[in-house]
Amino acid sequence: MRFLMPGLALPALLCTTGCTGPDGSAPSPTTASASASASPQPTSDASLCTRLVTYWARRTLADDTYGDYQSMGLSHGQYRILLDVVAAGRSARKQQGADVTGRLMDRQARTACAARYRHGTPSTGPWT
To answer: Which of 14, 66, 83, 96 is an S-S bond match for 100, by CB 3.0 to 4.6 Å?
Structure first.
């Protein structure tokens, strides 16, 4: 048996056959049927790594962090990438400015995370 969301069940039951809109046209699909057809795509491990590392790299570069890699939700391997990205960002910020720094950190994180997950999830331990 399929259950509908309470707010959407009544309109679906009331208009099962012969219903038309105020202008005589067919009713538009309900929100439930429209959202059911568009399912979200899962995020790849490399994309998730990139998003996490770039987020924490910007926060770290702004001295807006505390704690260790586990409090950031990173694995040890992701944290190593973060440290490399932040080091490169600090160097670039001194020489080239904030805009270049952000693009460099994004590119470096994307490249390092893609390399890390190119063969799937590392399996040498839970915090690798």
So the answer is: 96
86, 60 contact by CB (below 8 A): yes
Please indicate, yes or no, if residue 98 is contained in any of the structural domains.
Answer: yes
What is the model's pTM?
0.63
Between 26-35, 39-48, 59-68, the lowest mean confidence (pLDDT) is in 26-35
- Specify if 85 maps to a domain: yes
Considering its fold, how many domains does the chain have in total? 1
Give the span between the Cα atoms of 10 and 48, in whole angstroms.
40
Tokens 């586990």 belong to residue: 70
* Segment holding 30, helix H or strand E: none
Distance CA 51, CA 53 (A): 6
